[in-house]
Amino acid sequence: MHSLRTASLGPWAETDPVLKAQATLALDLHLPVGADDLLSAPSSGPGRAPRPALVPHTQLKAKSMTTAEGRAILVHSIAHIELNAIDLALDVVWRFAGLPETFYTDWMRIAQEEAKHFMLLRNHLVGMGFDYGSFPAHNALWDMAERTQGDVLARIGIVPRTMEARGLDASPGVKNKLISGGDHRAGEILDIILHDEIGHVAAGNRWYRYLCAQRGLDPLSSYAELIARYDAPKLRPPFNMAARRLAGFEEAELAALR
Predict the structure, then answer these.
(1) For site-directed labelling of 100, which of 5, 37, 71, 192 has its Cα 20 to 30 A away?
(2) pLDDT, tens digit, for every residue of 175-224?
(3) Every domain of the chain and the residues it spans
(4) Which CATH architecture has domain 4-33+56-257?
(5) Sign of CA dihedral 202, 204, 208, 211
(6) Which residues lie across from 137 on neighbouring strands?
């Protein structure tokens, strides 16, 4: 019988983005977790389709929100983040052994919510006359996943608590851009995503503190050390303090942002 962790490798390796999302949504969270199983990936990285072309983020160009293409480019960039987020959550489930069962069920639930987000955005893109893969994208999220693959503390400390938390900060401005261009449906989808992502970052905070406690580390100073060691992106304002508080950041952490 499959364990939840071995089952996560199927959608992780799937190359078709829509099938990846559908396979993730179909995973049975009632499978035995297999927390102690030592697993290896079937390939060097998650499954990827030939499109979108991956380029340095400096080569990505925005267009005016007054054009359908400009709005589609922005929606596409968010869909790309959500697709990467599926793989990131699945990667945490299969890669890291020996953690409590609730760790794995938390990240599998997160993977399924990311799959829901991707499908909402992809379907919206199709309704706009485009599709996922219509525009180039960058690989910054997965680059950080590769850098932190050897240490679950680094992965949890940086990806959800830094990379995904940046999404909490960016969400209000991105929503305003799309709505100002007349795309109210995209604004509704971003509201769904923000609500769920607060929970994802909260899970990151909760498990980061658990891992720090297991190793006898101070969460605040250890976070600064991880950011420096793994050359994580520097956080810049504006910060969505309300969303960050809901996601479980402590006041000392929020003060450090300032």
Answers:
(1) 192
(2) 999 999 999 999 999 999 999 999 999 999 999 999 999 999 999 999 99
(3) 4-33+56-257
(4) Up-down Bundle (1.20)
(5) positive
(6) 54
